Amino acid sequence: LYAWNQEIGTALTVTLSQVEICLRNQVARALTDAYGPAWHRVVRFCHAHAEVQNELDKAEGRVKKPAPSLADIIAASDFNLWRELAKRIPIAFPNMTLAGKERDVLAELHRRVDLLLKLRNRIAHHEPIIGSNWERIGAKLADRHCDAAELLGWMSGDLAHWVLARDRFPAVLAACPIKDGP
User: Fold this and answer.
1) Model-wide pTM > 0.85
2) pLDDT for 158-167, tens place per residue?
3) Residue 117 in contact with residue 130, Cβ under 8 Å?
4) CA-CA 20 to 30 A from 146: which of 14, 88, 168, 171?
């Protein structure tokens, strides 16, 4: 199970990294369209969202330049910034199929991105990800993989197709070494 935990984490990392990169690019593009190329300096946007401002400040602090550009800050940012922005920028998800009140839709979007961030962090810190004793091994991983695929599709159908065509997760999940696994 230890070795399979590593294999399934490796397979998921490929998809999760594409979600993170696409999320970053989609949100940054949407913010540029809405607030201009210096959106990270627009007071009415940044100061209205303390969590976002905090993440932007941390990213800017990582840049070793006196006046970092937006590209520098984006490169120095982490998934936390994009998770916080995802719940505020529905335009970054042009193919989103969730229905309901915008606040509820954005809360669900944020929940899914947050779960993917937590999974990514568990994988990065070499922690167990295969599940608990009271659930089928890998069940939650399959749910998170579906979330990742859906998020990619909401941002870019072409990218989702490209990523999923190369995805090793289903094969690794099927190779679970426990007979009552997936």
Assistant:
1) yes
2) 999 999 999 9
3) no
4) 88
